[in-house]
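Weekly structure sync, notes
Attendees: PL (lead), two postdocs, one rotation student
Agenda item 3: pending single-chain targets
PL asked that the sequence for the first pending target be pasted directly into the notes so everyone works from the same version. It is reproduced below exactly as submitted, 502 residues in total.
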Amino acid sequence: MARSSSESSAASGQDDFSEPPARRWWILCVIGLAQLMVVLDATIVTIALPSAQRDLGFNDGDRQWVITAYALAFGSLLLFGGRLADLVGRKRIFLIGLVGFAVASAIGGGAPNFEILVMARALQGAFGAVLAPAALSLLTTTFTDSKERAKAFGIYGAIAGAGAAVGLLLGGVLTEYLDWRWCLYVNLIIAVIAFVGGMRLLRPGAPADRPHLDIPGTLLVSGGLFCIVYGFSDAQRHAWSAVSTWGFLLAGAVLLAAFVRWQWRAPHPLLPMRVVGDRDRGASYIAIFLSGAGMFGVFLFLTYYLQRTLGYSPITTGLAFLPMVAVLVATSLTTTNVLVPSFGAKPIVPTGMLLAGGAMAWLTALDRNSTYAGHVMPPLLLLGLALGLIFATSMNLATAGVKPRDAGVASAMVNTSQQVGGSVGTSLLNTLATSAATNYLAGRRPTPAAVGQAQLHSYSVAYWWSAGFFVFGSVATFLLFRPGPPRVGGNAPGGDAPPGAM
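Predicted structure, written out during the meeting:
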């Protein structure tokens, strides 16, 4: 009987909602590994960049492309990757994404020159855009019981929030004790473990009611997201008035507006408005976008501060983020299992946003005489508490109640929100910080002391802007999230709240 049920499930392509409990938690381990690999790759290379630059001989102006190439491919292709999981089958796309990501990492690790490294990073981003939505949609369709779902998304949210910090630590260890190339080679180890686990544990098949591919929508949204990410990245090298900056941003805005208009009329929309029209989901996507913008920015500038101002080594810099990771993990699990079922998202996510804004404001007080224990760790602990409230809650509600045929694209929206938010935030904050440092040095002699103080001033400006992101997010999410605990039916497989439902 069990055999025929399994065969029926595989044949129809429907996810098996009756997985044995032990099997479900092993599936979570596999999904968590894949998600960790994708998230930490956004920061693990940051630590390795100075060593890679010395080894391959590229200049400071080109250095940003090692980061940007990944962000461009990943951010622009996520919605397409999410729909592929709905079309072809989540297991198949998950495994393809793992293999492709591993191959791209191997090419990057063995890169003989700058051009090959950038090409490999772009390939990593493309396969990451296939892998990440498939992973989250597998989680969404595997855990349908509300209590188990809360635990699973608590763990997943902790991985998503802490992955960037883990990347900094792992990057520091590998760069210091092995070689910068191992920051890419390490993905092969993770991918092999996840691939073997995925082959053994995941059910095959594609959805029986598989959707059609919306080709015009795919081209519009991929082009729009590419232009937005590229425009903000270009602003780091040119003025905001440069055509290559505002032209791409304007083109991106026009393409995304055309995409939204098309989705209302398309017979088979890439992103059905029923997915984003629900208030809780919309608020969740906004929360993930804004927290991604603020979080990735602070990792970048705090890393600079610890290494350049306090003189920390790469591995010590990574270790400095561990207390924040521990608090984030503990808070994520407590939030999804205790707080959200009792109070709902409305008081939790806005409070997390305010706490994160407070942590950013606290970091503006750092100077050359600050100590880690007295001045750096306290705001980091507060940030870990805040992000734990935000990420696990938002990722759970962003995919709750989505019909199985839309699980991939709804999951892709989560990753798109975080990745594009991180890209926009990092680019925008880096541009503002660079301008602040330049303005500070205007009319001053560029002595080492003045240059050091200009760097501190630029970091402070970035922290204040990050605080502004979070305060805005607090207001937006407070207005959008529904009051009270999540509706019981919202987590039922196949359920789907109507757009704008109160």
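Discussion points:
- Residues 1-17, 488-502 have pLDDT under 50 and may be disordered.
- Residues 214-269 form one domain.
Action: rotation student to compare against the earlier draft before next sync.
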